[in-house]
Write a structure and sequence with these properties.
The structure is a homodimer of 224-residue chains.
Chain A (H helix, E strand, L loop, with lengths): L4 H5 L9 H10 L3 E5 L4 E3 L8 E6 L2 E6 L5 E7 L4 E2 L14 E4 L3 E6 L2 H5 L8 H26 L4 H16 L3 E3 L4 H8 L3 H13 L3 E4 L2 E4 L6
Antiparallel strand pairs in A: 1-8, 2-7, 3-6, 3-8, 4-5, 4-7, 9-11, 10-11
The first copy, chain A, binds a DNA duplex (30 and 30 nucleotides) through α7.
DNA sequence: TCTTTTCCGTTGTAAATACAACCGATTTAT
DNA sequence: ATAAATCGGTTGTATTTACAACGGAAAAGA
């Protein structure tokens, strides 16, 4: 556990908290370490959640498969990111999606309920963590709205443009890598992979962008 | 302002706070009342937000129109509900959507930043409000994920089924009213109105449900 | 009351999508 | 090193959707 404290320090959850202080909080947050192999389920739809989980190595996807096998990727959780913040409020209900390791992953989960509900002066940095949590949920909220903006577009091309331009803006460059392969991107945008692949190539042929694997480049005169 | 305190008391923001205490907090939260006519913009995409707004009469839509006139309704804010919670964190950026009054509406907005960032003991109920805010953002988060679940479905029918079943579950009855007319529902689900209308009638003819105006009834053997 | 506007179902057509199947290239596993 | 699996592009077809246009009914406004 100790060796991951430097990673924890970089997370939104522990922003503004020193490594020593994180170390001191671990027991009071009942921190537990778990490991998952690629493809393993961290959590399944319908389960109840009372812990926040931070990824320290690997990557998780929040996703859901419907009856017909269509997968929808709601979110990806990379190193230093977390999930479960939105479910620590009482009566949050069951989670709506599966959480799956898309690579071999290590996570640390925390029982943060006690520091939310009891007086925040129990530990000196509790109130800081509570505020961090609030900001983190807020940010995830804005991310979800942004994602809604992508998939509420009518056509595959519009969805791609919406997503890719935002990613370029976020990474502050017309050249950037995306954290998905083709199938995952299709699942993220809720479209068919082959249709999307087709559309991407059309866009490339029209001079809007170039790409190789997961590296994209938006061309001036095209999308930027 | 005073006359709306009874409504404020029912909101998620002031849960657990008495009317007297709300009254005392109004000035410290710099509460301001605003009125909007049906169709008026409360906020436009690109603006920056630093206040939380609670609806006390009427109804707002959080929505966005694209270049071609396609409208996407992200959320509706009814009486007692609020918006802006996710933007009080510093560096939240500009809001991504418009907020529009779909009926004549009255809102009260608050400057909650000070109670988030400064020590929460300034007022006795500040910490309660902070916690309420956190829970509210969490709940909105879960709602957004649920909405993502609807519109990530591939076909109009699946989107309708996803939305209507959830609404039945939420209202705890196979018979329920929805807060949208047809055009609004189509914008909410990001589909074409006429195509959706068509699909609804097909579903009715197939015996899955009945409806009249915004009143729906899911039939056993059909969707329930 | 009369007019105007909104609402919602209907239809036909063009466009876009999903789906399945295939294949070569690359990566991973044995 | 070889086999197996994954990945990504391509194509054709059936399905689904968007779009435009229309009209009757209901609601809103004058």
């Amino acid at each position: 556990m100790k060796k991951y404290i430097s990673i924890l320090k970089t997370t939104k959850l522990f922003a503004g908290v020193s490594e020593d202080e994180i170390g001191a909080m671990l027991s009071c947050l009942d921190a537990r370490l778990h490991e998952y192999k690629k493809g393993e389920y961290v959590l399944r739809q319908g389960e109840h959640l009372n812990r926040i989980t931070v990824v320290v190595t690997g990557e998780l996807h929040v996703q859901r498969d419907d009856y017909w096998g269509n997968r929808a990727i709601v979110n990806r959780i990379g190193v230093g990111e977390m999930f479960g913040e939105a479910y620590i409020a009482p009566e949050s209900g069951a989670i709506l999606n599966d959480v799956v390791a898309v690579e071999d992953s290590t996570v640390i989960c925390f029982d943060v309920r006690r520091i939310i509900t009891v007086c925040s002066s129990a530990c000196r940095f509790h109130s800081m963590v509570v505020q961090n949590l609030f900001f983190a949920v807020s940010e995830k909220n804005r991310t979800l709205v942004q994602k809604l903006g992508h998939i509420s577009r009518r056509t595959t091309r519009e969805k791609l443009i919406s997503y890719l331009s935002e990613e370029a803006k976020r990474q502050n460059s017309p050249s950037f890598a995306i954290p998905f392969n083709r199938q995952q991107l299709a699942d993220f945008l809720s479209v068919d992979r082959s249709a999307m692949s087709n559309e991407l190539c059309k866009m490339r042929d029209e001079g809007l962008l170039t790409f190789e694997k997961n590296q994209f480049h938006l061309l001036s005169g095209g999308l930027v």
